[in-house]
Amino acid sequence: MKSPRPIWVQIVTIMVAMCCMTAIKAYAKAEAGRDSLEVSLLTCTPGQEVYEVYGHTAIRIYNTRTHQDLTFNYGVFSFGTPHFVWRFIKGETDYCLGVVPTEAFVASYTKERRGVTAQVLNLTQDEAHRLYGGLIQLAMQPDWTYRYNFLYDNCTTRAIADVERCIDGEVAWPTDVPERTFRQMITEFAAPRVDWNRFGQDLLIGAEADRRIGLKEQLFSPIYTQGFAAEARIRKADGTTRPLVKEKIVLAEASDDMVKHEWFTPLTATGALFLLCLALTAWGWRRGRALRWADNTLLLMQGVIGLPVAFLFLFSTHPTVGSNMLILWLNPLPLLYLPWKIWRNYHQRPDGFGYIAGTSLLLAVTAGLLAGQHFPAEVWLLMATYATRVIHAALLQLKQKNQPCHTPQA
User: Which residues, 6+ apart, have CB-to-CB distance to 283 below 8 Å?
Assistant: First the structure.
């Protein structure tokens, strides 16, 4: 038996339904009287939550005669969806088209101290009504959803596709846009706000995120799209052009203190871990101690981090996770190897740590470089920490061969 949906989910559903019915009535009236419609691309500045750091895009349609002012938003999802968390982890989250009064939409961002900018589009009335009609048709389908994809099919790409479909002609986007990578663009917005989340993404996304992309694929970013739209033009079949954006209006100002820099960053943590490992290894070498507990700790950390890496690599539809070469190093296999290693250590037998750990690390680095995957500084520091213990194990084994009767202390 399904559990009842939370009351707030039911309230939101009712409100959305009421807005849809209002919009449908307004559309019918607009079609009958051919009201003048003003279409704007709304761009919202980044917030502090993980799902807010890249900004947001929506479409505003304002009836200048009746003053009906609605915002159509492709970024709506419900936590009440059955198995939501499981589907979210697997990358199978379905989003829908929400319709709310623009005043309420802007107020929600103002409360969060985030900015909202309207770019009034230079559309003809035929184009504006065509866009409005298409959005209303979707709003009339209560079960309509689309499979959200952060990089390839999101709230921004959907809004831009709607605008391009309604135009008599085509959108001529700027041609002098520098090529970037998905990882560069993700880092640009995530690092100042949720740096630990950015680090987690760097561990999960693979070589596909490091290929060079042009303007069309950069349109997944709301903030970049806003800049591109400001320079774009509408080109008709007869060759005449006009600007895509005719006016820019700030509906809500962004707060200046949204970005908070923390001292304990992933770079700080991994740098401290590397220095600690280096110091412990040097101390152990001078004292003749193997410090196998340090190796076991690293293996445990490697296996635990490897669990989500392997799961997403094997089962998720999230973009780029299937090309992550770190899977050769960060995977759950160390969790299976660790008990056997501890047993061998207890009985003072060789455990093969140097060979096993060194091979997995070398495979990941080699495959990553060949695939063109970018490893950020934090990942290199983790690798250096691991490599320090691998080199120590190799040197220790060599030392034992030269001194067969000496058994280092644990």
Answer: 289
- Determine contact, residues 324/315, Cβ cutoff 8 Å: no
Give start and end residues of each alpha helix (H) in 261-376. 266-287, 292-315, 333-346, 353-371
Closest to 357 in 3D by CA, of 377, 328, 395: 328
Q: What does pTM read for this prediction?
A: 0.85
Q: Cβ neighbours of residue 291 under 8 Å, at least 6 residues apart? A: 280, 281, 284, 392, 410
Distance between CA 351 and CA 344 in Å, rounded?
6
Instruction: Label residue 147 left, alpha or beta by phi (over 0 means left) and psi (-120 to 50 means alpha).
Output: beta
| Cα→Cα distances 122→106, 169, 214, Å | 22, 13, 25
Encoded amino acid at 218, one letter:
Q
Q: pLDDT per residue over 143-187, tens digit each?
A: 899 999 999 999 999 999 999 999 999 999 999 999 999 999 999
pLDDT single digits (tens) 352-408 = 898 999 999 999 999 999 999 999 999 999 999 999 999 998 888 777 666 655 555
The answer to whether the beta carbons of residues 42 and 69 sit under 8 Å apart is no
